[in-house]
Input
Amino acid sequence: MRLPRFDYLGPDTLEAALDLLAFHKDDAKILAGGTDLLVRMKKGLLKPKALISLKALNELSYIKKQDGYIKIGARTSLADIIASDLIQKEAQALFQACEKIGAITIQHFTGTIGGNILQNNRCHHYNQSQFHRSGRQACHKDGGKICYAREEADRCNSTCQSDGATALMALGASIILAQKGGERTVDLANFYTTDGIMPHACESHELLKEIIIPVQGGQSAYHRLAYRSAIDYPIVCAGVLLKPSPKNEIEDARIVVGAMSRSPLFLAKASSSLKGKRFTDMAAFKKAADDSMNSAAPFAVHNVGATLEYRCAMVSQMVLRALEQAAAAIKA
Ligand SMILES: Cc1cc2nc3c(=O)[nH]c(=O)nc-3n(C[C@H](O)[C@H](O)[C@H](O)COP(=O)(O)OP(=O)(O)OC[C@H]3O[C@@H](n4cnc5c(N)ncnc54)[C@H](O)[C@@H]3O)c2cc1C
Ligand code: SF4
Output
């Protein structure tokens, strides 16, 4: 599979990158590490006229603690996040998620956290070569009017398999989207659309500049299930955050399930069921994990491998393991 032709644009400042985005709009795509984008282009799923590379924008590569937040530049590599003491100490779920992404080559050489969040949703009916897809009618995402994954669907239900986005949503993260002349901050939990063709609300003239994580003084954890331990996407994953009260009970909890739907799912009911419970209350954790499974199941679509029944059942396991791990870290 060969890459289609495109113009390569290499701005050396953020301002120049935003000027280029404002000028080219839908005709251009941002190139960070390229480990998602270039694969899609090779498969003929995307043919931008120009790529605006972030390679020279070192100003978008940093991890720092400031004003009660951890701030991460969008072009920061997955390897830098894994190596960061700050992330390991205060955002354990993100560390655990990044460690699982792809393979060491993806983490070390090119993959970025911004690209991880903004990678396109996936579906095994669609993420195929042009030759494979040409053998049958086009689905919604390919410009047609049908869906192979959910027959009656009037829209695309491709699945968000981003490990990073699931962990970051559990941590209550927001993102800063910059455009020429301004920027906006969006809570990651409100960033997603209801259509897998354009799964998130980053406009074509916008650039993801920074990820901000509130330092909440709790413990977080992340677990995922994939066919292989490397070079594979999750088929179910879960990120959780537990915050202790002065009485050492659970003051606040966040449970997020990923790889089951068009976006990571923040499960408010299961999360709030843990408020006031003790960190040793395993029955409460089991109930929250089962509630998470029941809440996530209606969103799930059979389009990323394994049977739907198996993935739904595993939601409960992933959530339970993450809760137990976060609780153990608080007790330690
Ligand atoms: C074999 C393989 C296995 C993988 N396994 C996993 C996995 O287990 N878990 C997982 O989560 N991912 C996985 N991935 C997907 C991908 O490698 C990672 O998500 C990686 O972090 C993407 O980062 P990138 O910098 O390469 O993104 P790119 O490919 O450069 O970009 C991805 C998308 O985001 C846009 N973009 C990137 N940065 C910005 C920005 N700052 N502002 C606006 N738009 C931007 C691009 O235009 C593109 O549409 C895998 C990929 C491969 C090829
Ligand atoms: S979910 Fe349906 S419309 Fe979307 S990519 Fe898969 S088959 Fe196509």
Q: What stands out?
A: The pocket of flavin-adenine dinucleotide (ligand 1) is lined by residues 29-37, 39, 74, 78, 101-102, 106, 110-112, 114-116, 118-119, 161-164, 202, 207-208, 231-233 (CB under 6 Å). The chain is about 35% helix and 20% strand. Residues 58-119+159-331 form a domain with the Uridine Diphospho-n-acetylenolpyruvylglucosamine Reductase; domain 3 fold (CATH 3.30.465.10).
